[in-house]
Fold each of these.
Amino acid sequence: MQVKLTPTPMQAAALKHTLHTVNEAACWVSGVAFERGVPREYELRKHTYAELKERGLGAQAAQHVIKKVRDAYTSLHANLRAGNLGKPGSKRRLKAASKPIAFRPQAAQPYDDRCLSWQYDAQTVSIWTVAGRLKGVRFACSPNALKQLIAHRKGESDLVERDGVFYLIATCEVPEAEQQEPERFIGVDLGIANIATTSTGYQAAGRGLNRHRRRQLELRRKLQKKATKSAKRLLKKRNRREKRHAANQNHIIAKTIVTEAERTGHGISLEQLRGIRDRVRLRKPQRVALHSWAFAQLADFIVYKARRAGVAVVFVDPAYTSQRATRSRTVRSGEAMAKT
């Protein structure tokens, strides 16, 4: 659950300085880890903890910095093993593996309940900073989000800065609804012309989304051609905006599909997405559309929303989802004509 902090100018300065300090410390810890072959977290703590305390970090903040660095290297090694950073010997792979991991000054910093406490009635938080503990830092969120925080917040929260605005990303553990045994399944076919097509007749038309992506692609080309500092800043800003737009559309599509399944008592049948970009053969203009849409994100949204609603989800061979969806629509049309 993401909430927006609305600190005073003095509080904002303290939060900004804290993020810069902990991420600068994380870069130093990353250098130590890289130099020593990325030892285990316990070994890394022996080499860095005292120095982090000297830099003004509290005990818990120092522990979180060390763990953040160790987790970053764990993710890097997993991506290298999976080939996500290119084949052995490729420039991208060598670049990623040949230098320490660097952390942006605004990168997220985890907080546990010892460093961060929530006052839900007043909608404020008390948070640790390098300048001391800040009390009464206000946050803003929707009424539904506040209910979720009160009922289900648990564990760590991340402090992050985006474009000068501070956010807390809180972890909420929501219990799953009791899953009903469905008699039938709604087939969901993912594609380019229509982002999602279901066997019940729902189509998430891709025309507007594809038009939006083409506009963004053309703008990126112009900015990349300029290659000035301001153009690069605008590229990053536009990239974040496009990701938010895609995530919002995926949320809407997933909610529509899950709501229909919950209302009718059906399950959801999704196509297996693993390797979708490798097995699909398209012309060059269509490849841009294929690679620019977050199909896996849409599937993840459908799965987690279905688990919350108690709707069963199964993954099937993608070769037959389109046929099943078309056959189901044809049968329903025939039944409707017979009744007429």
Amino acid sequence: MIFYQEVGCPKYNSLNITKSGTNGSGKQRYYCCDSGCKTKTFMLDYNYKACEYGMTERIVEMAINGSRVRDTAWVLKINKNTVISTLKKRKAFSHK
């Protein structure tokens, strides 16, 4: 039995994609051919959950809603240091 999986860009849900080789562990990479797409390359399943599309937004949203760093890391199943560095990069809590 043959199964086909329809693959679309996670940013624009566009089906205008091509294969773009494999990563170091042999998982397929894809290239979005839309001119407005900022991500360009993506994979369907990542080795580490923090690399998945939309993870940064989830981290910032949980921080704004009062979740602590360790709680966020535990819920999203990522490292607490990744949560800290993501929040520092986004400057979600910059004081003026």
